[in-house]
Write a structure and sequence with these properties.
The chain has 460 residues and is an alpha/beta fold. It contains 16 helices and 16 strands. It folds into two domains: 242 residues, Glycogen Phosphorylase B (Rossmann fold, 3-Layer(aba) Sandwich); 208 residues, 3-Layer(aba) Sandwich (Rossmann fold), CATH 3.40.50. A hairpin with a 2-residue loop joins strand 3 and strand 4.
Length: 460
Amino acid sequence: MSRIVVVSNRVADPNKPAAGGLAVAVRECLRRTGGLWFGWSGRIVERTRTDTGHAHASIQASGKIQLATVDLDRQQYETYYGGYSNNVLWPVFHYRLDLAQFDEGFAAGYRQVNQLFAQQLFRLLKPDDVIWVHDYHLIPIAAELRALGCENRIGFFLHIPVPPPLIIAAIPEHEWLMRSLFCYDLVGVQAKSDLTHLVRYMETEARAERPGDGILRAFGRELRVGAFPIGIDVDEFAALADARDSKDMYATMRDEYSRRELIVGVDRLDYSKGLPQRVRAFRALLDRYPENRSRATLIQIAAPSREDVNAYDELRQEMDSLCGAINGDYGELDWMPIRYIRRSVARRRLPGLYRASRVAMVTPLRDGMNLVAKEFLAAQDPGDPGVLVLSRFAGAAEQLTEALHVNPYDIQGIAQAMQRALTMPLDERVSRHAALMDSIRRYDVHWWRATFLDELQRTA
C-alpha cells in the first residue's frame, strides 16, 4: 500500500488536541493510515544569507506518523505567510478585494518558500508515495516538485471558498497560480458552488477543455476536479461530549445560566466570520422581541488570529465597541446580554458549551466549510437538541439543509432566525437534528479521506 504524505502549512502533534478544521481532519486521516506529515514547524529562526537554502527538515515520530518540519526566517514568514497567504489569497478568496495588498515582494517570498518546501520534501519521498497537499499556502508546490523530477501522484485540497472567475483574476499572479494547479492530478474543493467557480475560471482564463465529467485539459496536462465536502469524526466528538471536561463545562454553564437561554458562537476573530453583523442582529433581537431581555445570553468566543494584520485590529476594536454598547444599554445587575471572550477555549470543553446552548450561530460572510456547525450538532442531546442557525454562504449549507439558513448581511433576518430558534417546538428541533445528524454521519471525515484518496489513486 502506498504511503500517504500530507503537506500543509503547519504541522501539529497528532497526540495533542487540535484546534479544529484542517489540523483535526489531517490528524484523523493519518491516524488511520500512518504516513508522513510535512510542513512548517511554526518556528521563526535567525538565518544568515549563506545558510538560508541549506536547512534540512527535522524528523520525529509520533506513533505511525512521521512529522517532518521546516523552520522559516523572519522575512520568509512575513512575505509567504503574513504577506501573500494572508494579505492576498485569504482576502481575495473570501471576496474581499478591498483588503488585499498586492505587493510584489509578497509573491516572491511565497514562491521562495514553496520552492524551499518542495526541495526539502523531495528528499524524503519514495517512488510510490501519494502526496496530498492542503490549502492556499501551498498552491504552487506541485509545480516545484515536478520541476525537481517528482512523478508521484499529487492531490490538492482547498479548505477555503473559491470566488467567481473575475475575482480570482484580480490577483496579479493568477495565471501562474492557475498553471500551477494543472501540475496536480486531482484538485478538490469544499462545495459544488466552489467547483462551479473553479471550472468556469479554468475555462475562461486558461481556455481549458472538458473531455469528460470532472476533467479539465490545459497546458498539456489533464486535471481531475471535484467537490469533497470535509466532515468531522462524529463518534470522536460525541465521545468528547461524554468526557469529564465536557461534562464539567456543561454543569457549570447550566448552573450559571439556569434562568437563561444560551446562544453560542465560536469563531476565529476574522473578518470573514460575520461577527459584527451577528452582534448587531442580537441587538435587533432584543429590540424587536423584548421578551428576550434578561432571558437570552449570547456567548461569543472569538479566538485571536493574525493580530499583526491591520484589518484584524480594526475588527477587534469594532467588536469591543459593539459588545460594550449592548451590555451598557441593556445589561442588568443580574444579566449581561453578551459574554464576549477574545481567546480560544480548549476543544475538549467545547462539547459541554454546545450542549448547554439552545442556539448556535454560524453566520460567516463566506466560509469554505465550517466544522463548528457539525461539531455543535454532534454534541447535542438527541432528545432535547439545540438549533443551528447557518449562513447560506458557508460551505456546510449545501449539506445541512435542515438548519435555519440566513443571509449574514441581513441583520433583521438573522434576528428573526434567532427568535424562531429560541421558540422552536421540541418535536421540530428533534426532527431537524435527526436529519442533520444523518448527513454529518454519512459524510464524515473518514468518508472525505477515503473518497479523495480513492479518486487520487485512480488518476493516471
